[in-house]
Design brief:
The complex is a heterodimer of chains A (about 350) and B (about 270). Chain A contains 14 helices and 4 strands. With about 350 residues, chain A is mainly α. Chain A has a single domain, classed as ABC transporter involved in vitamin B12 uptake, BtuC (Orthogonal Bundle). Chain A is globular and about 70 Å long. Chain A starts with 12 loop residues before the first helix and ends in a 5-residue tail after the last helix. The N and C termini of chain B lie far apart (about 40 Å). Chain B has 2 domains: about 160 residues, Rossmann fold, CATH 3.40.50; about 80 residues, no CATH class. The longest helix of chain B is centred in the middle third of the chain and has 19 residues. In chain B, α3 runs parallel beside α6. With about 270 residues, chain B is an alpha/beta fold. Helix content of chain B is about 35%, strand content about 25%. The relative contact order of chain B is 0.17. Classes of the chains: A mainly alpha (about 350), B alpha/beta (about 270). Chains A and B meet through α1, α7, α8, α9 and α10 of A and α2, α3, α4 and α5 of B.
């Protein structure tokens, strides 16, 4: 009843191509943004910031980057974590070489390095696809993590071999490092994620997005109607790696505070791939839903026994956690292989015609 | 080019000069000769059919024209100039559009997006403009949407414009594919078996659309089709191929009475 498109007439193509042609969607998004920008910062605890809000946003962004490549352009990649690492290490080098640089600018710029590396490792995609390409990106994963470990210049020859985020100031407020407050970091992350999401939505609904999707769906036909496959694939690698690199910089600078090379190892790649798949490949919204599930569920499962007063040891909780999350992933993939975003799309379709399904 | 005068068809349409000419085209795959020394021309505004039994090399011929195969020997002249070997996407940008024998739509996209993809060669906005959906990118989206809507109207697929292509029945998919090719505003439209697997009604619809396209936009059409009735009705001139060789070329009536063609289709007594 509430979700109805009847009576919303479009009189121009511009209106039909608006970001949210359905009024209710715009209202819903407004509510979400209100929560994200106003209500959460006012009410959330330190614990909520550090275990839920900030990581969900960062993981969403990383999954969004991967989704551009895998979900939109159809190029399977297992090297996401390594590209996040490139962003993080580039950001570290930028802020230590140029301490005067605005941290947010440094974060946004560090994605460019990741984009460059992504394009280089995307070159095999011109000849191979599917699982074989996944193996090629796996090479990037192993090589880059090895590089983070062996190339001392990257971590300024620290004895520990790890990178430590220094205190970084912006407009007189600490935004990164040990002295930064969670609220400030949350706002920085939220601003970057909001901006990136908007850019990604625009890219995917425009000409570039159509050429990616065409490449994904039927590459031969795409080439025969005038798409330069090389350009289409490499731009997908570039844009995707850029977003993933920015997510990596945020991951270390706005959340973890420090990073060792093995942080960017393959489990992180898989985690982000799970988020993208469970959320829904080829969708923007899905990345957020997937991240909420993958990041939020363990937190919920950890706090639930305590809240219910159940005497379960923390080790058992940890094991239960893995079992439940794992089976839920399987469950979601069985009931909706196209992810949570498709589930939402189906609900929407049903709501529009409810209560008369014909 | 021998003459640029053209000719007048039986139904009174004026056909222009030579738009594309294939000279002594040979195509080999290893030791297999798929096409052997074939020459023919395509004139502006005509409907040119390529027919022949299965495996005659018709689709290979179309693939050569659209740049998917590079001929082993021979030259292809297009709009008065010899075409160097080029990639299929470059050929598409020179105004050659095509449909496929097996539907090759982008299944994950809506009808509208599929047809919009056909306009891709006409859109030039940079990545920054697209990222912000502002300025040139937005203007282009709207301007090209208008063109696409005209094509959608023309092919009578308004009702399904926002439907994902994967959900459409076969006949409509074929029509959407034609729409995607037409959206590119091509000089030459290559149709690879546009009526394969259709019932009589759908074939009639498709024939009407092909004639309308040719009539309204003056698009030159190269057509591969197995339904002889359709070919004889639609086309102005027919090339007949068999085992990679050209065995006939001319107006439908002439081809129909050609002994080689009859032999190829009906077989010869031994």
């Amino acid at each position: 009843m509430l979700y109805r498109t009847a009576g919303q007439f479009k009189t121009s193509y511009q209106a039909d191509q608006a970001l949210f042609p359905v009024r209710q969607d715009a209202v819903l998004l407004g509510v979400v943004l209100l929560f994200a920008w106003v209500i959460f910062p006012l009410t959330a605890s330190e614990f909520a910031f550090q275990t839920l809000l900030i990581p969900i946003l960062i993981y969403s962004l990383a999954a969004l980057g991967l989704n551009l490549l895998t979900g939109y352009a159809g190029q399977l990649s297992l090297g996401t974590a390594a590209f996040m690492g490139v962003g993080a290490y580039a950001c570290y080098k930028l802020v230590t070489l140029m301490p005067w640089l605005n941290p947010v600018v440094a974060i946004l710029f560090s994605g460019a390095f990741s984009a460059g590396v992504g394009v280089a490792f995307g070159i095999p995609s011109l000849r191979i696809k599917g699982f074989y390409l996944a193996i090629a990106t796996l090479a990037a994963q192993f090589f880059l993590v090895w590089l983070f470990e062996k190339w001392g210049w990257l971590y300024n020859y620290n004895a520990s071999g790890a990178i430590q985020v220094p205190n970084l100031e912006m407009f007189g407020v600490y935004v990164a490092g040990p002295q930064a407050s969670s609220v400030v970091q949350y706002f920085v992350v939220l601003a970057v994620v909001t901006l990136m999401t908007l850019v990604c939505i625009n890219l995917t609904r425009g000409n570039l997005g159509r050429s990616w999707k065409a490449t994904r769906d039927m590459d031969i036909a795409a080439e025969l109607i005038g798409i330069n496959l090389m350009r289409s694939k490499l731009t997908a690698f570039a844009v995707s790696s850029y977003v993933v690199g920015v997510a990596g910089a945020l991951f270390v600078f706005m959340w973890r505070g420090a990073a060792e090379p093995n942080l960017f190892d393959i489990p992180l790649s898989f985690r982000i791939l799970f988020i993208a798949i469970i959320g829904g490949l080829g969708s923007i919204l899905g990345n957020y839903l997937g991240a909420i599930l993958i990041v939020g569920l363990p937190v919920l499962l950890n706090t639930l026994p305590e809240a219910l007063g159940l005497p379960i040891s923390s080790a058992t909780v940890e094991h239960l956690n893995i079992m439940i999350v794992g089976s839920l992933i399987v469950f979601f993939l069985i009931i909706e292989p196209h992810g949570l975003a498709r589930l939402w799309a189906l609900i929407r379709e049903k709501l529009i015609i409810w209560p008369f399904p014909h | 080019m021998k003459d640029t005068q053209g000719y007048v068809t039986a139904d009174g349409r004026q056909i222009g000069g030579v738009l594309m000419e294939l000279r002594n085209i040979t195509l080999r795959f290893g030791g297999v000769v798929a096409i052997k020394d074939i020459s023919f021309d395509i004139r502006e505004g005509e409907i040119r059919a390529i027919i022949g039994p299965n495996g005659a090399g018709k689709s290979s011929m179309l693939n050569i024209i659209s740049g998917f195969y590079t001929p082993s020997e021979g030259e292809l002249w297009y709009k008065g100039a010899k075409r160097p070997p080029m990639k299929p996407y470059e050929v598409a940008r020179m105004g050659v559009a095509r449909t496929f024998q097996n539907i090759a739509l982008f299944e994950g996209m809506s009808v509208l997006d599929n047809v919009m993809t056909g306009r891709l060669t006409h859109m030039k906005a940079g990545i920054a403009s697209q990222a912000l959906w502002w300025g040139k990118a937005r203007d282009e989206e709207i301007a090209n949407r208008e063109v696409v809507e005209k094509v959608i109207d023309f092919l009578e697929i308004q009702a399904i414009r926002k439907t994902p292509v994967g959900r459409l029945p076969y006949g409509l998919k074929k029509r959407v594919e034609l729409a995607r090719a037409l959206a590119a505003d091509p000089s030459v439209l290559l149709l690879d078996e546009p009526m394969a697997g259709m019932n009589v009604e759908e074939k009639e619809d498709m024939s009407r659309f092909i004639l309308d396209v040719n009539d309204e936009f003056g698009t030159t059409i190269v057509l591969i089709e197995h339904d002889m009735g359709v070919v004889m009705d639609l086309s102005d001139r027919v090339v007949v191929m068999d085992y990679g060789k050209k065995i006939g070329d001319g107006p439908p009536e002439e081809v129909r009475s050609n002994q080689d063609v009859i032999d190829a289709y009906l077989g010869v007594a031994h």
